[in-house]
């Protein structure tokens, strides 16, 4: 199922409560947004189609599950996806950055229920805090 570079099918959702730390563009991550989460960690969402497709701005408060961006293919991306990174200490997301943790491990600990709205799988959420309804 191909995600379009805009629209509901490509929505990217915040995985935690926090505040938008930066919204930028660079050669690797393309258009990206970094959120400082309330637990002090930083999460990175890269490759958005455009700055405008990142629907939050620096300083905005965001809530877990909030629509923040769209998947795209800017920067060094070989396909449409959201590039997700987590750093427990600082906003640094290069492969060997101090404080970087596995995005998969991080997400596995987030109380969640990935909501396959309209049948598509949506990376990075949205998440429900109700774990009891999860079926293994
Ligand atoms: Zn990527």
From TrEMBL:
<dbReference type="InterPro" id="IPR050570">
    <property type="entry name" value="Cell_wall_metabolism_enzyme"/>
</dbReference>
<dbReference type="Pfam" id="PF01551">
    <property type="entry name" value="Peptidase_M23"/>
</dbReference>
<feature type="region of interest" description="Disordered">
    <location>
        <begin position="94"/>
        <end position="136"/>
    </location>
</feature>
<dbReference type="InterPro" id="IPR016047">
    <property type="entry name" value="M23ase_b-sheet_dom"/>
</dbReference>
<feature type="domain" description="M23ase beta-sheet core">
    <location>
        <begin position="10"/>
        <end position="94"/>
    </location>
</feature>
<dbReference type="InterPro" id="IPR011055">
    <property type="entry name" value="Dup_hybrid_motif"/>
</dbReference>
<protein>
    <submittedName>
        <fullName>Peptidase family M23</fullName>
    </submittedName>
</protein>
């Amino acid at each position: 199922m191909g995600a379009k570079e805009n629209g509901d099918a490509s929505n990217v959702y915040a995985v935690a409560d926090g505040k938008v730390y930066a919204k930028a563009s660079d050669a690797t991550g393309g258009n990206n947004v970094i959120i400082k989460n309330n637990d002090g960690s930083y999460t990175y969402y890269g490759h958005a189609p455009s700055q405008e497709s990142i629907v939050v701005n620096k300083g905005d408060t965001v809530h877990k599950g909030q629509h923040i961006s769209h998947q795209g293919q800017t920067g060094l991306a070989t396909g449409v996806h959201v590039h997700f990174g987590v750093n427990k200490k600082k906003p640094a997301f290069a492969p060997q950055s101090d404080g970087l943790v596995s995005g998969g491990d991080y997400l596995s600990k987030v109380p969640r229920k990935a909501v396959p709205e309209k049948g598509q799988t949506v990376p990075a959420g949205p998440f429900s805090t109700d774990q009891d309804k999860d079926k293994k």
